[in-house]
């Protein structure tokens, strides 16, 4: 097993670095040895470690850890893009969150990252027609992490959800690649209408804490939504909107606001 782990890790620089950091973490804090060995070093690949974390966190008296582990292993085995997205999400958190200093932190400690990875398995289940199991995953993610993402929502890669408390993303929402959002963001509807009723968030968008984006509207690529804003109209690309209701208050300020995480409002 040790040889297998070494052989696989040498082909995966992300997993190699996680394992190296894990060894150092155990040396620095021996009391975390059991957690780090069972959560990281015991596994042959990044996907296996994520599957273990998924099953450990979402297991309950209603669904055993073993069943959830088998389900997650099946998802990662059949859909390699889930693991690829997990790596992109990890890099997004590491590069954009100043509180993240090591690759292992999101995997072990950051509920926003873990919630998004669990959503990805729920979305895979939804696409397979296993809707009831997908709803179970959604329920448990909401209960455990305080993040409620409908399994039918479509979310790209390179996603960073900072703090992640009270995130809500509705059924027909679409989120592009390289999006950053902070806690208490809602991508919701505006009433009881059925059908396509949730926002479409472009690539590279930064959504500030507490912002509400409501209805089947488009938020253009590389735009910014200021904290606390309520957005009910479409947002042009590369602009900043703020207020209740939100209005355009200036340009986005840079080419990639989701990457810089700069939330200063410049009206010039």
Descriptive tags:
single chain, five-stranded parallel β-sheet, 2 domains, disordered N terminus, 44% helix, UDP N-Acetylglucosamine Acyltransferase, domain 1, globular, alpha/beta, six-stranded mixed β-sheet, 268 residues, serine acetyltransferase, domain 1, 10 helices
Folded structure, characterized:
This protein is of the alpha/beta class. It folds into 2 domains: 13-146, serine acetyltransferase, domain 1 (Orthogonal Bundle), CATH 1.10.3130.10; 153-267, 3 Solenoid (UDP N-Acetylglucosamine Acyltransferase, domain 1). Helices cover 44% and strands 15% of the residues. It has 10 helices and 15 strands. The chain has helices at residues 2-9, 13-28, 33-41, 46-58, 65-78, 80-96, 104-109, 111-127, 131-145, 257-260, and strands at 147-149, 154-155, 160-161, 167-169, 174-175, 180-181, 186-188, 200-201, 206-207, 212-214, 218-219, 224-225, 230-231, 239-243, 246-251. A 6-stranded mixed β-sheet has the order 3-6-9-12-14-15. Strands 1-4-7-10-13 form a 5-stranded parallel β-sheet. Strands 2-5-8-11 form a 4-stranded parallel β-sheet, with no helix packed on it. The longest helix has 17 residues, at 80-96. Mean pLDDT is 93; it is low at 1-9. Keywords: Acyltransferase, Amino-acid biosynthesis, Repeat, Transferase.
Write the topology of this structure.
Elements: H1 2-9, H2 13-28, H3 33-41, H4 46-58, H5 65-78, H6 80-96, H7 104-109, H8 111-127, H9 131-145, E1 147-149, E2 154-155, E3 160-161, E4 167-169, E5 174-175, E6 180-181, E7 186-188, E8 200-201, E9 206-207, E10 212-214, E11 218-219, E12 224-225, E13 230-231, E14 239-243, E15 246-251, H10 257-260
Parallel strand pairs: 1-4, 2-5, 3-6, 4-7, 5-8, 6-9, 7-10, 8-11, 9-12, 10-13, 12-14
Antiparallel strand pairs: 14-15
Helix pairs in contact: 2-3, 4-5, 5-6, 6-8, 8-9
